[in-house]
């Protein structure tokens, strides 16, 4: 959608991709619905899906599972908004509350998935099938715009949306289109993780903000900045505690 106001402010032609119009009100519905559709095709309609989420990923999973008629459980940390709980109930999802932070909810979801062969853990952002689903927005943009964009701007939390845009641009032969990722200060785990891996063999933890730990992913030999809490004044939902390992491997 063309934005007259932003175009006037910037002196450029600005278009907005309104992902808030997705059934679960965020871009995450694209990738997670694609993942769930594939899971049902591969494992049958009796599967049980489980996802750990602080909000949007859980809403997307519940909405997609309800549409595709499969069972879904959403593990949430304490303190989630009542509107989120109401939406999950409307979508017939089973809600489990565990811990104060996303990491604690994720641990429980992983444990529940390990203990039941019929349960599939739905990833929130670090999964190629999600990126494949998110990439569909670039195919839509190409069909909707008369010209190739000069640049694409996107928000970055864990990196799932950014990876989906990269995949989409490759699919549409838009490799020459610059992609600018934007993070909120106070939850910029991707930025700090890139800095940690900039010089091979040297990790400078002194440059990290207070309260941020370094996690070494031994399988991929990558160092990740892990935020124990967010200090972003925008919203805690605008960030992830640490970035996608798959996204980091690309860079």
UniProtKB/TrEMBL annotation:
An example Gene Ontology molecular-function term: L-serine ammonia-lyase activity
Keywords assigned: Lyase, Pyridoxal phosphate
Gene3D superfamilies: 3.40.50.1100
Residue span, Tryptophan synthase beta chain-like PALP domain: 3-214
Cofactor requirements of the protein: pyridoxal 5'-phosphate
Catalysed conversion reaction: L-serine = pyruvate + NH4(+)
Group of enzyme by EC: lyase
E.C. number: 4.3.1.17
GO biological process assignments: isoleucine biosynthetic process; L-serine catabolic process; L-threonine catabolic process
Family from the record: Belongs to the serine/threonine dehydratase family.
Protein name, as recorded: L-serine ammonia-lyase
